[in-house]
Specification:
Length: 168
C-alpha cells in the first residue's frame, strides 16, 4: 500500500486517506506556508538600519577636538569645537567676563578653570587631572584684569586660600 507523510505530524498515512489517522489533518486543505523567514529577514534589516542610523548620529555628534584661544591682543576668548560634520565657534569678550574661577575637585576633572560671564554663564577654559591649574588661573585672571576666585569642592566647601571661607 502506498503512503504519504502527514505535513502536520510526520506520520505515514495511506495515499487515498482524506485525513490523518493520528492528528486528523485534513489533506483537502492547502498546506499553509509560514512567513517567519521573511518576517525575520525584514526584522533583521530594520534592526541594522536602526543601529546604522544611531551609529552615524553618535559619530557626527561626538566632539573630535576643542580649542580655546585666549587672545590678549583682541581681548577675547574664542571657543572652537570641531565635530565630524561641522565646526562651532563662540567668542566672549574680556569686558563680558566678571571673574575667573579655579575649582579643585570638580566632577569632570580634579582642577577646572572657568570664566563667569555677566549673565552668570560659566565656561570652562582648562581642566586637568594631572596637576594644579592655580598658576594658569592666576595668569588668565591677570591677563583679563579680573578677580580670581578659588573653590575647593573636594572638601565640600571652602576656598583654597582663605582657610575655609568660600569666595564668590
Amino acid at each position: 500500500m502506498a503512503t504519504k507523510t502527514c505535513p502536520s505530524c510526520g506520520e505515514d498515512v495511506p495515499v487515498q486517506a482524506p485525513r490523518c489517522k493520528h492528528c486528523f489533518h485534513d489533506f483537502s486543505e492547502p498546506v499553509k506556508k509560514s512567513n517567519t523567514g521573511l518576517i525575520g529577514f525584514l526584522g533583521m534589516l530594520a534592526a541594522m538600519a536602526i543601529i546604522g542610523t544611531g551609529t552615524f548620529w553618535f559619530v557626527s555628534q561626538r566632539q573630535a577636538q576643542e580649542r580655546i584661544v585666549i587672545d590678549e591682543d583682541t581681548h577675547q576668548i574664542t571657543f572652537v569645537k570641531k565635530y565630524a560634520d561641522r565646526t562651532e565657534s563662540d567668542v566672549i569678550k574680556f569686558d563680558d567676563i566678571t571673574k575667573v574661577v579655579v575649582v579643585m575637585g570638580g566632577s569632570q576633572a580634579t582642577w577646572v578653570v572657568q570664566v563667569v560671564t555677566l549673565d552668570g554663564q560659566e565656561r570652562v577654559v582648562n581642566e586637568s587631572n594631572d596637576g594644579s591649574l592655580k598658576g594658569y588661573a592666576e595668569h588668565i585672571a591677570a591677563v583679563m584684569d579680573k578677580p580670581l576666585v578659588e573653590k575647593n569642592l573636594a572638601r565640600g566647601f571652602g576656598d583654597l586660600g582663605t582657610g575655609g571661607q568660600q569666595q564668590d
